[in-house]
Amino acid sequence: METPIPNFYFMGVQFIHLLALSVWVGGIVMIGFIIAPTLFRKSASRQAAGQLMGEILWKFDKVILFCVAALAATGIIKYRTWENLTPWNLTRYIAILVMAAAGVYSALVISPQLRSWAAYQASKGAGAQAAPPAVDFDHLHRTSVRLMFVSLICGLIALLMA
After folding, report:
1. Alpha helices, DSSP H only, in 4-162?
2. What single string gives the DSSP state of each residue in 72-101?
3. Which among 25, 20, 19, 18 is positioned nearest to 156, based on CA atoms?
4. Are 96 and 75 in contact (CB under 8 A)?
5. What residues have CB less than 8 Å from 40, skipping those under 6 apart?
6. Which has fewest Cβ within 10 Å: 5, 119, 154, 161?
């Protein structure tokens, strides 16, 4: 009886694809449901908690962009090499596309505006004259939370369909 040789190329591509999805979804769950609530509840001041949360999110934005790149590369490889365009796969790819769009928009548009707002607030407290940000914090924060929620839902759909 002949033992089949595993397809390590497929296994590697699939592993990277699922790892990127899992890291992204897991990061959202950790930040949104564990880190942020605990940080704001236990911190001495809301401003200190906000600054620390901003640092955490700035680092997570880098993780998101890496995950987007990994998902794009592995998604293209998977589609061109092994997959057919079935409704199942189409749903997964649409979920990943929406997740990637939300993540990139959040990391490259919303987060820099939030950092600009935070820098303005810090300079205002230091007495320096800086131009006020164009968008208020509440609007940026709501948009950021919504984008993270969309990414979470789409990521769960993509993992379910994987």
Report:
1. 8-29, 36-42, 46-81, 87-105, 111-125, 137-161
2. HHHHHHHHHHT----HHHHHHHHHHHHHHH
3. 25
4. yes
5. 46, 49, 53
6. 5
The rounded distance, in Å, linking the Cα atoms of 83 and 89 is: 8
Entry pTM:
0.87
Segment 78-106, tens digit of pLDDT: 999 988 889 999 999 999 999 999 999 99
Q: What is the biggest distance separating any 2 CA atoms in the chain, rounded to whole angstroms? A: 80
Rounded Cα distance, 96 and 58, in Å: 21
H helix or E strand, kind and range, residue 32: none
CA distances from 109 to 43, 54, 57, 97 (A): 28, 14, 13, 17
Model confidence band, residue 146 (pLDDT cutoffs 50, 70, 90):
very high
Structure tokens that stand for 66 in this block: 């890496």
Residue 16 CA to residue 18 CA, distance in Å, equals 6
Query: What's the CA dihedral at 39, 132, 139, 142 to 10 degrees?
Result: -20
Burial of residue 70, with CB atoms counted within 10 A of its CB: 0-12 exposed, 13-18 middle, 19 or more buried: middle
